[in-house]
Design brief:
245 residues, mainly alpha, Probable membrane transporter protein, membrane
């Protein structure tokens, strides 16, 4: 009972966190490892459990979603599906020990990019808004999301800022839509590869769904500066925790 309650609580908070900041996988992954699920399988299972949260958050932000300059929604859909499937296939080939080593570095990179995004956007507008650069950047981030998913929201918000999307709510809505798309294709491949712990995923999915929707609605009431501070704090805290593991 204690293990199941921990999984439910982690999924609810993670769904809320993903809707407003990202980094929810850093709650679900330790909870699943605590429940006895191996690390790579825990990553895949946590990603599946958070999928309903991504979907509900995307619905909650549906009126605010707007792609950055130079990209259409159709292009983002295609890139999300290609990147998510590529990253998932890479995870299937990654040993547990390798996976554990790269996780904290990836999250730290995502957090630093988000911190630097406003300055980089101001100083590199022409390059950031090039359609070719935008497509390659989105593809790279979606591959990351299909591989790990932890910190994906932080990295997507940083990227959309670099590409010229200055409205945080619009970037948040787009972040959740892209996350949902790439996660859909990724979890299908995780299931095909036998990485999903189905019982634990079922326990967590409903809580993540509720957390994602409530988080999306609550984000509208928070000032942008508070959201940015929360995103940075989440990224740095989770990076430190994984370095210390």
């Amino acid at each position: 009972m204690l293990v199941d309650a921990t999984l439910i609580a982690a999924a609810f908070v993670a769904g809320t966190l993903n809707a407003v900041a990202g980094g929810g996988s850093f709650l679900t992954l330790p909870a699943l490892v605590f429940a006895g699920v191996p690390a790579v399988s825990a990553n895949a299972t946590g990603t599946l459990a958070l999928l309903p949260g991504y979907l509900s958050a995307a619905w909650g932000f549906r009126g605010d979603t707007q792609p950055p300059p130079g990209l259409s929604m159709r292009t983002l859909v295609v890139l999300s599906l290609i990147g998510g499937s590529t990253g998932a296939l890479l995870l299937l080939l990654t040993p547990d020990a390798t996976f554990r080593r790269v996780v904290p570095w990836l999250l730290l990179l995502a957090t630093l990019l988000f911190v630097l995004a406003p300055r980089l956007t101001a100083s590199r507008q022409a390059g950031a808004r090039s359609p070719a650069v935008a497509r390659v950047s989105v593809l790279a981030v979606t591959i990351y999301g299909g591989y790990f998913n932890g910190g994906l929201g932080i990295l997507l918000l940083a990227l959309f800022g670099l590409l010229g999307q200055t409205r945080l709510l619009a970037a948040n809505g787009l972040k959740n839509q892209v996350s949902a798309l790439l996660t859909l294709i990724a979890v299908a491949l995780y299931a095909w590869g036998g990485l999903i712990a189905w019982r634990e995923a079922a326990i967590m999915a409903g809580a993540a769904l509720l957390g994602g929707y409530l988080g999306a609605r609550g984000a509208r009431r928070l000032p942008s500066a508070w959201l940015r501070a929360g995103i940075v704090a989440t990224g740095l805290t989770m990076s430190l925790l994984f370095f210390l593991r």
